[in-house]
Amino acid sequence: IPFPPKPNPRRLKTLASAGAPSPMASAAAPASSEEAVKAAKVLMVGAGGIGCELLKTLALSGFSDIHVIDLDTIEVSNLNRQFLFRKSHVGQSKAHVARDAILKFRPNINIESHHANVKDAQFNVDFFKQFNVVLNGLDNLDARRHVNRLCLAAEVPLVESGTTGFLGQVTVHVKGKTECYECQPKPIPKSYPVCTITSTPSKFVHCIVWAKELLFAKLFGDKNQDNDLNVHSKDGSSSKLDVFERDVDEDLDQYAQRIYDHVFGYNIEVALENEETWKNRRRPNPVYIRDTLPEAVKQNGSSWDCSNDHEEPSAMASLGLTNPQEIWTLAENSRVLLEAFKLFFEKREKEIGNLVFDKDDQLAVEFVTAAANIRAHSFGIPLHSLFEAKGVAGNIVHAVATTNAIIAGLIVIEAIKVLQDDYKNYRMTYCLEHPTKKLLLMPVEPFEPNPSCYVCSETPLLLDVNTKVTKLKEVIDKIIKSKLGMNLPLVMIGSTLVFEDGDGLEEDEAANYALNLEKVLAELPAPVINGTKLTVEDFQQELSCSINIKHREEFDEEKEPDGMVLSGWSAPVEKQINSNGENKSAASSSSARATDDTVEDPSKPGMKRKLDELLETKENCDASSSAQVVEDDDDCTMLDGNPALIKKKRLQ
Amino acid sequence: GGGGGAEEEELTAQETALYDRQIRVWGVDAQKRLSKAHVLVCGVNGTTIEFCKNIVLAGVGSLSLMDDHIVTEDDLNSNFLIPHDESVYGGKSRAEVCCESLKDFNPMVRVAVAKGDPSLIDGTFIDRFDIIVLSRASLKTKLFINDNCRKRSKHIAFYSVDCKDSCGEIFVDLQNHSYLQKKPGGEPEQQELKYPSLQVWKFNLNFFCRFVEIKSFSSCALLFCTPSLFAPRIRFV
Questions:
Q1: Contact present, A551 and A593 (Cβ < 8 Å)
Q2: Taking Cα atoms as reference points, which of A60, A55, A62, A13 lies closest to residue A36?
Q3: What CATH number is associated with residue A491?
Q4: DSSP B130-184
Q5: Do A367 and A402 reside in the same domain of the chain?
Q6: A167-173 and A158-164 strand pairing
Q7: What pTM, to 2 d.p., does this model score?
Q8: Where is pLDDT greater, at A480 or A239?
Q9: Comma-separated ranges of CATH 3.40.50.720 domains in chain B
Q10: More confident residue, A577 or A379
């Protein structure tokens, strides 16, 4: 969710008084807040950090008819802030346990809890229509967009929110009166070009992605998955096609060391052979086990066998490393890697071939940390502790109870305004450390709907794509489902239905669609060429879009890695890649080391931007979105109670 | 503040697992200091229980509650720590009932009842605390306790807080407070703050606190959000 957005003067008008009044306000006299609250039926989506605080505040405020939806179960790391849960509840449904906890101190209210995904078909427009207001306490962009669309379709006001560490915000979205949640496009989680990950990493996160998506996946994940790791060895005598395969009866230590040398030594040497790549870049150093752990080469077969069979296998435990905040040396990282590797084969052999990285899997985190660190060492990138690496690899969002409590309070305040149709007083409230004034809360008047928002206004989009080589499947995955956030889309060209998703398809229909997916656009039953218009719909979200196709042959591999470009609404601000590991607002004493002062902007190779020149945004969602620094002289509009008096103040 | 000097012991595995998300916000060092801090709350009501919830979840060393008032129906309406079960709350003080509930929130925190009257507590009693939070006390009691906090050889942080309808107020006195300010792209800078006592502030026209127009319940959370209402970043001393 953007930091107080740069105000667009054209759009700073008093909120439209047009639009159907909410059900509450159609009563003869404006309801008092108590009456409005008593009669209200609210839907809470999410029973986690914000959800627990929100449910408590709603109950204390007199709300008595609440539905809660959450698909998650309780984990230990939730307990520092999701106070309705106890250790004994770990593994149970958040929605159900939250409900039970609230009923203990408010036994007479109605709470219906759903342990389900809000994107499920049962939560359709009719379901949403029964509520006076919807309150979001979600942690991902995808679900937020989905709920936004359903609220628009059902014409139910939505109060959105999010928190990350000490930062948070609450925003109000009422159809026809304010922007919808998607009027200002949100930065979608950044993806990295393949070559950066496989050949030219420059930041620790690149090493993490390599360790997670390539090395870990290759060794322990689904063998049938495509993988970009180089599998060929230089040793022509080896009859193996894939050097990652273990030889029959190969000693585990030897296998581990062989893999180590291959990915950290040989593969780097191969990469170095391409002079062009390294013309303007620091050359990486190949790393071999004989250099980092000379004693290991001689000590084949021995292992520090102090692992307790009852506990989760852990390389750190085996090696006597106890502090997750400590940054290991190259030698220690190497030992951890080899030990973790062995432990997977010795203790968890059955899982190999099916493993997916999980941030709560200690051994997996140890493996990925060690692998990323060794690679980082090669490329001259600073090493990180397990604690930090885990945050990066697991996209962990840092969180405290207090911010959630504040945000929950603000949500209820806005909800009450919405129930009373008090639109002049709707506020978007940002909870942050004001850069210059001693303020914690910054309320801003909502903007009018964006006339070119493809979600709440009808606006055609434009897609640049090579229609001769791009398959329908790619457009659906990368654009329609991913960028447009449609869940069960339907694609039409004129009156020809080329694709449909969902249950209830006939066998021959489904087969036909499966065939279409594999066809390139130009060869579809209704050919898609330059100038063709696609109609894309999602029934559940009641969203319909037109996409005009523009054929283009060439796409820049680095700047346009998807091979297609969607435009037509205000494009998201190009954000610097960052994630928790790189740029924490945390005053963590262990991360006193400076991150890069100047970072290469991947969209403008060769041009460096200083961190403090970039706008800061905090997004409470998949934390792979950005975090940067506040511009001190940013324009910010502070609006007082009278919407007619709009003062633009320059922050000193 | 509590502790002082380098803390050699690491956090336990249990603490690391439980506090993972907040350690990513304020760091291991702050977490360690927090775990050695002792807090006294005088006056158990809707406002202060928000604070109690947050500080216990965060893993403070200990929390003591002082409020001998017997639980009434009024308390039931505004206090989420009191279960609607007369066999649990009947005949007990607010401090007693809330103490039991809070223990549940975080078994690693020592929560205890301190019997007594805030207006009568003496210097030696408050010496065991690093922070005192006072609510719904008379001005005389506030001045008395604030004065005592300043007289002790160890600096005791003083907070006084109240909510009424849609207004809330908070007064903070950290005496002489130094902390490290993180600068973007640079080294942390040492900062010093000098807080006036309540006595001094009363007659001072430069207001250090803001009166916030908010609904009463929500204000509870807002007022004890972070101490950083008044300083960019306050660390535990």
A1: no
A2: A62
A3: 3.10.290.20
A4: SEEEEES--HHHHHHHHHHHHHSSS--EEEEEEEETTEEEEEEE-SEEEEEEP-T
A5: no
A6: antiparallel
A7: 0.78
A8: A480
A9: 26-204
A10: A379
- Report how many domains make up chain A: 3
Q: What confidence tens digit (pLDDT) does each residue in B185-218 have?
A: 878 889 898 998 988 877 654 444 433 333 333 4
- In a domain, residue A413? The reply is yes
Q: Are residues A437 and A536 in the same domain?
A: no
The pLDDT assigned to B100 comes to 95
Contact criterion met (CB below 8 Å) for B162 and B138: no
The reply to whether ipTM tops 0.90 is: no
B213 to chain A: closest CA residue: A413
Out of A4-13, A147-156, B99-108, B178-187, pick the least confident.
A4-13
Write out chain B residues lying below 8 Å of A86, CB-based: 104
DSSP state of A471: B
Of A151, A195, A306, A621, the catalytic one is: A195
List the alpha helices (DSSP H) in chain B.
Answer: 13-35, 46-58, 73-78, 86-89, 94-105, 123-126, 139-151, 198-202, 216-223
Are B28 and A585 within 8 A, CB to CB?
A: no
User: In this complex, do B58 and A398 lie within 8 Å of one another by their Cβ atoms?
Assistant: no
Residue A149, both tokens: 């669309």
* Domain hosting residue A78, numbered range: 33-188+398-444
DSSP state letters, A176-210: TTS--TTSSPPPPPP---HHHHHT---SHHHHHHI
- Local confidence band at A268 (pLDDT 50, 70, 90 cut-offs): very high
**Buried b / exposed e along A330-347 (16+ C-beta atoms within 10 A):** bebbbbbbbbbbbbbeee
Please report whether residue A13 resides in a domain.
no
| A388 and A402 inside one domain | no
Between CA A561 and CA A558 the distance in angstroms is 6
Which residues 119-178 of chain A have a CB within 8 Å of chain B? 165-166
Tell me the count of A-B CB pairs closer than 8 A: 166
Reply yes or no on whether A195 is catalytic.
yes
Question: Under CATH, which architecture does the B26-204 domain have?
Answer: 3-Layer(aba) Sandwich (3.40)
- State how far the Cα of A128 lies from the Cα of A175, in Å rounded to an integer: 14
In this structure, which amino acid lies at residue B61? G
Most B-contacting residue of A57, A80, A585 (CB-CB within 10 A), to test interface: A80
